[in-house]
Amino acid sequence: MRITLVSGSNRANAASTNLLKYMQGLLEPQNITVTLIDLAQLPLPLFTPDNWDFHPNAKHMLDTFAESDGIVLATPEYHGSLSGVLKNALDYVNPTLIAGKPVLSVSSAGGPLGVSSLTHLQTIVRNLHGINCSEWISVGFGTQAFDADGVLADEEVRTRVSDVLESFVQLTRTLGTTNLAAFK
Questions:
Q1: Which residue among 36, 82, 101, 143 is least crowded, i.e. fewest CB within 10 A of its CB?
Q2: Residue 4 φ/ψ, nearest 5 degrees
Q3: Helices (H), the chain
Q4: Confidence at residue 42, expressed as pLDDT on a 0 to 100 scale
Q5: Could you tell me the CA-to-CA distances from 143 to 14, 26, 74, 147, 148 in Å, in that order?
Q6: Bridge partner list, 108
Q7: Which of 33, 45, 42, 32 is nearest to 8 (CA)?
Q8: Which residues of the chain have pLDDT under 70?
Q9: Per its UniProt record, what InterPro entries does this chain match (predicted)?
């Protein structure tokens, strides 16, 4: 199984990126191949529909999506929505790359919740014909949510992340099996 994690922040030490790294640490021991796309490290030019000869960074991201069985999209919440960096990245995506794949939406907010950004992410996923995971993850209080070792500081949040991630992995396995069976 291959899962792509996309960090939609361009901030150093971003909580959304730290959360994905934490999740990567939970997934890899399960023999899941994980690719982390950190948009701060893989900058993309502004998308324009006038140019379909994409920048190598955009091609890398799109190739990774094509090879993925499931996708996790993480964003900080800016002004009640997802980051411009993640929105720009998703503008490059052709629905055929996400159609039928499970997508987990993740948000970090400076306050306790990031519900608006999660709702917007799920709308985008629906328009790309992806399958929204029935749950989402919102981690509040920014970088203070993590200790010095990159572990979520709150035990209840760690449990929530673990439970939601387990549900997402099960959905990815189920859909992968179903999709494979449909083509045999």
A1: 143
A2: -105, 130
A3: 15-27, 56-67, 84-91, 115-127, 155-182
A4: 95
A5: 7, 19, 14, 9, 10
A6: 76, 139
A7: 42
A8: 110-113, 141-143, 177-184
A9: Flavoprotein-like_sf (IPR029039), FMN_Rdtase-like_dom (IPR005025), NAD(P)H-dep_reductase (IPR050712)
**Residue 80 backbone class (left: φ over 0; alpha: ψ -120 to 50; beta: rest):** left
Packing angle of the helix pair 155-182, 15-27 (nearest 10 deg): 60
Q: So what's the pLDDT on residue 183?
A: 40
Q: How far apart are CA 40 and CA 43, in angstroms?
A: 6
Q: Which long-range contacts (CB under 8 A, 24 or more apart) does 148-153 make?
A: 150/18, 150/21, 150/22, 151/22, 152/19, 152/22
**Domain at 102, CATH number:** 3.40.50.360
Q: Do residues 12 and 181 make contact, with C-beta atoms less than 8 angstroms apart?
A: no
The pLDDT tens digits for 54-77 are 999 999 999 999 999 999 999 998
* 27 CB neighbour count, 10 Å cutoff: 19
pLDDT score at 142 = 56
Domain count, the chain: 1
- Domain of 39, in residue numbers: 2-182
Helices then strands (H, E): number in the chain?
Answer: 5, 6
